[in-house]
Design brief:
By secondary structure, the chain is α/β, with parallel strands linked by helices. Helices cover 35% and strands 24% of the residues. The strands form four sheets. The protein has an eight-stranded mixed β-sheet, with helices on both faces. Strands 10-12-8-13 form a four-stranded antiparallel β-sheet. It has a two-stranded antiparallel sheet with strand order 7-14. A hairpin with a 3-residue loop joins strand 1 (49-54) and strand 2 (58-64). Bound molecules: zinc ion (ZN) (2 copies).
């Protein structure tokens, strides 16, 4: 698999870092030990500036190149997931109920690998800002870092990020010019009726039958209210109610997710969902409390930067292993907040044949880190070449 030679030379170090991080997953905004580890490595590499404590446990490090030029931002996420690891690997999580099941330990390692190379070679103009963020999975760490002003403070002109892709061969890359990851909204509905004996439904107002009907009815947003050509997902993912076979409960709770790319489609769902639920509630005689939360926006690559990044990936991986127009996904990504403010691109890098992300058997392939690091390093050299 083609990678930069110098990065190949410290591949073993990267594997050691990655496996160490894998053993100590941290959650949300509280990636303090991970950040400490990252800062220590960056200090060893001799980067020029390290700014810690951004968005609680995030950090930005600067490497100066040769001569004047813009600042390119490279972002890695550091957080893990609240789930039990079931890989049985010798370096499996040492913390019960926490797992790096999305490969963010690998993303952190890729950026560390690129940092080591870039600090050593400095074969670029301007500066590189290495952005290590907490809380990608939940909590919008990227948004907090943007709100705390990193893009202006460090004069970051463009931003790039990578995510590993299980099911895509190691050493492959794909991206797309334009929308690549969806916006994610969340809804929850509390249905309140009148509880009673399961044998006497006529004396109750059953919230379960109302909830069942509501779940069916909201699917018509996709099938009947929506123009076929724009992507839209409405999924009900939780329903909780009841305690015994002979009790009709007083309440039921429904929860779900909405994925969109287009703001008009998002606005339509946001209007239509409460209308349908209220209509259903009236027909069953229950009352409802609806909570609709707007989450991460769609991740939208700027076409020029996505094309440029794809060309760099071709240089690293070869034409046959890069899909510059690989389509969009309905997952969400908080790097979206950075791309709302700066041009840039989000790319996927193949992670081979493993269980999917967020699965207890998910495994990050350490070779993915070297291909990611090689991409980041070459991206900087090509984006900001030294004036000849
Ligand atoms: Zn994830
Ligand atoms: Zn992830």
């Amino acid at each position: 698999m083609p990678i930069l030679n110098r990065i190949a030379e410290f591949q073993n170090d990267m594997t050691t870092w990655r496996r160490h991080l894998h053993e100590m997953p941290e959650l949300g905004m509280e990636c303090y030990e991970t950040a400490k580890f990252v800062a220590a490595r960056l200090r060893d590499f001799g980067v020029d500036e390290i700014h810690e404590g951004i968005a609680s446990s995030g950090l930005v490090a600067i490497i100066n190149g040769q001569g004047d030029g813009p600042t390119i931002g490279l972002r890695a996420d550091m957080d893990a997931l609240p789930m039990q690891e079931e890989t049985g690997l010798p370096y499996a999580s040492k913390i019960d109920g926490r797992m790096h099941a999305c490969g963010h330990d690998g993303h952190t390692t890729m950026l560390l690998g690129a940092a080591r190379y870039l600090a050593e070679t400095r074969n670029f103009a301007g500066r590189v800002a290495l952005i290590f963020q907490p809380a990608e999975e939940n909590g919008g760490g990227a948004q907090v870092m943007v709100n705390e002003g990193i893009l202006d403070t460090y004069d970051i002109g463009s931003v790039y990020a990578l995510h590993n892709a299980p099911g895509t061969p190691v050493g492959h890359f794909y991206t797309t010019p334009g929308p690549i990851m969806a916006a994610v909204d969340t809804f929850s509905i509390t249905v309140t009726g009148v509880g009673g004996h399961g044998a006497y439904p006529q004396d109750t107002i059953d919230p379960i039958i109302a909830a069942a009907s509501m779940i069916q009815a909201v699917q018509t947003i996709v099938s009947r209210n929506h123009r076929t050509f724009d992507d839209l997902v409405v999924s009900v993912t939780q329903i909780h109610s009841g305690s015994a076979d002979n009790i009709i409960p007083a309440t039921a709770w429904i929860n779900g997710t909405v994925r969109t790319f287009d703001k008009d489609v998002q606005a339509m769902v946001r209007k239509r969902l409460p209308e349908i639920i209220q209509g259903q509630a009236a027909s069953f005689g229950v009352t409802v409390e609806i909570d609709y939360e707007i989450g991460y926006p769609a991740t939208i690559n700027s076409p020029d930067e996505a094309g440029f990044a794809a060309n760099v990936a071709v240089e690293i991986a070869g034409e046959a292993n890069v899909e510059p127009d690989g389509g969009r996904e309905m997952g969400a990504e908080d790097f979206a907040y950075m791309l709302e403010h700066r041009p840039g691109a989000y790319l996927f890098v193949g992670n081979g044949d493993t269980a999917g992300v967020h699965h207890p058997a998910y495994d990050f392939d350490d070779k993915t880190a070297t291909s990611g690091a090689s991409f980041f390093a070459r991206l900087v050299e090509r984006a900001q070449p030294i004036a000849s």
